[in-house]
Amino acid sequence: MIAPDLFAAGTPGDDPIEAATAQFDSLTQKLPDGGIHLVGFSIGAMVAAHIAAARPERINRLTLVSPAAPLQLGNFLPQMAGQPVFRLAARHPRLFSALTYGQGVLTRAAPDFLMRRLFANAGGAEHALLENPEAAEVIRKGLYHSFAQNPKGYARMVRAYVRDWSPVLGAISCPVDIWQGAADRWVPLAMAQALADRLPGKVRMRLLEGSGHYSTLSHLNLGDTSTPSGKMRGFGALRVAM
């Protein structure tokens, strides 16, 4: 299993998708073509989709978990907990950069306060997840990595996300699994369904009743059995994703 560091890839002037694709090429250069199972969580689904489209000969399966699909596929923003951030990134990129800087300051000074604010509208499934000290620590470290250590990389990725990247979906030729929590407040079910409808090949939707954005990771199975994959049990998938 290889987990790239998407926010740290490249230099401040780099296109984040090009940088992530180059990182993918470097990390997988010794692996045979057609044998890679690519996984993308949340906004990482955008990166995984681009790589699957750009390197079809290398990818044999694509798994998208709680996937943040192109905003242009429908009117999803009113249903998304991240609506204010995405609107700001799309309309006022400088203010968005300032917000990201402020979140970095808060991450260092008051990480638990920031985490509670970010999860305020996340729903019961995610609130229950934060009650687990192990899960909360993983998320806390993920926020620190994004906002405090790599704010420019995080901001570049969000700005890339709010642009229209829906044409990429038509170039994905491998089978796709979508894991979606029915109680996800960051990625509404309608967005995941619109993504599935736009993909041209074989798509399998795994709908998890009662699961939220992050808690869906605890059910993730990358094989063909009904139980979570070994490295994904418990909070294993959360550690990899964050």
UniProtKB/TrEMBL annotation:
AB hydrolase-1 domain segment(s): 22-217
The record ties this protein, via SUPFAM superfamilies, to: alpha/beta-Hydrolases
Could you cite one Gene Ontology molecular function of this protein? hydrolase activity
Which keywords does this chain's UniProt record carry? Hydrolase
**Mind telling me which Pfam families this protein's record contains?**
Abhydrolase_1
Gene3D superfamilies for this protein: alpha/beta hydrolase
Q: Which residues cross the membrane?
A: none
Read off the InterPro entries from this record: AB_hydrolase (IPR050471), AB_hydrolase_1 (IPR000073), AB_hydrolase_fold (IPR029058)
- Output this protein's name: Putative aminoacrylate hydrolase RutD
Q: Which organism is it from?
A: Roseovarius gaetbuli
Q: Which gene encodes it?
A: rutD
